[in-house]
Each structure stands twice: as structure tokens, then as C-alpha cells.
Write a structure and sequence with these properties.
Blueprint lengths: L2 E5 L8 H14 L4 E5 L5 H5 L11 H7 L8 E2 L5 E4 L8 H5 L8 H7 L7 E5 L6 H9 L2 E7 L8 H14 L5 E10 L4 H13 L4 E7 L2 H5 L7 H4 L4 H17 L1
Amino acid sequence: MARVIAICNQKGGVGKTTTSTNLAAYLAAMGKYVLLVDLDSQANATVGLGVAVKEEDGHVYHALINDQNPVGLLKKTSIFGFDILPAGQSLAGATVELVTMEERESRLKKVLNGLRTNYDFILIDCPPSLGLLTVNGLAAAEKIIIPVQCEYFALEGLSQLLKTIELVRQGLNPDLQVLGVLLTMYDRRNQLANQVVNEVYRNFPGRVFDAVIPRMVSLAEAPSFGKTILQFDPNSKAARAYRQLAEEVIKYSN
């Protein structure tokens, strides 16, 4: 039965999609069967993995809103054992359509229930907002990874995210837990980055991953080639950091 992990921060540009795709790639490289659910209407994870999706093919929207069987919507990536439930443009309207639906917060959970036995891990790349799609991601997950970029304003809005997690826990998903906070875009020469690191350790004692994702050009470039860092620059510091993260996720998920 798959462990379901949401990767979530309502702030954009914190390395959420980069973490979702690269963590999934390394989990697959370590022999795990992994499904990545792209829940962001910008479909960055889908495009960044080189997966082509036509609206008529169907994607996560059609499973969420039209009750389409998700099995027929899955796409294989170029890495063995790593599949994706892709996103497409019509997902942008899902938030509005969900409002009037029954059990609107639990629809993703229902979609994933039929897939959990096929995978070791299901990762959910949540959109950069605290709307109904993100709530669906949190309601479906057992654990959350919160990427935090090592920059000014990094902790701004985190209290709002933690409040939302608490509300989801009370009303929809009592077992939901933060697996860890992941420091991203770290540049050790930057004094501010080191201050943010200290601040994160102070705010989340014992909940911060040892893996720290460095700021690297190759991480930003890899998706434009439809590749993960594992395929694009496997000997880089960023690749080593994501390998370490995957090892920690496996360890903490047992």
C-alpha cells in the first residue's frame, strides 16, 4: 500500500515541483514504484518530465471532476517505475467546479484509493495556493513535505499553511503529519540564507531534513530538456542532495 506524501507550500517559487519530480526520480532509482500526481494547473511537473498531454487524452481533472478511471489517465515517464497522473489546462477551472460537488475535499483521496496498491509511494505536487485543490491534496495524504527557500520572506505565510494543515487534520484527515521541512535554493555564501536556515531549525525543531537543496543552474535547466537532475546532471551537488532526501523519506516512512 503506497505511502501518500503531499509536497506543499502556498508560496510559489520555493522548489515544490522541482522537489516533487526529483524526489520521485530518486525513489524510483532506489527500486520503488512511484506515482506523481500533478495537481497544479500550470502542469509544470508534467511538462518538465517531457510528458505530452492533449486535453482529449484526459488528465487528473477528468478523474477529479468527471469520475473517470484514473488508471487510463496515467503516463509513464522516461524512468522505470515512475508514473505520473498528469495535469492539463482545464484543471484551472476545477477549483470553481469543486465548490458545488459532494465530498468536494475528498475527491482526490477517492481517485487515489484505487491506485494505492500499485505503488510504494504516491507524491502529490500541490498548487501554490491554499484553495480546494491543495485541500484535496492534504486530505488524501498521510504526510507532508514543506519546501522552504533560503531567502527573505521564506517563513512568511508558513503559519497560514500550518493553520490549514491543522484544519484539515480536525475535519478531514486526523492522521495527517508533517514529514519534514526541506530547505531549498541554499547558497552558503549568502549570509541571509544561513539566517533563514537557523530560523527554520528554531521553528521546526527535529522536523528539518538533513538534505539541503542547493541553488543550481542545472536544477532549473533540467526540466526544459524534459529531464530530472538524475538524468541531466547526476554528479552534481543537487543530485546528491535529492538522493539523500529520497533516502531520508524511505527511512522516515517505514
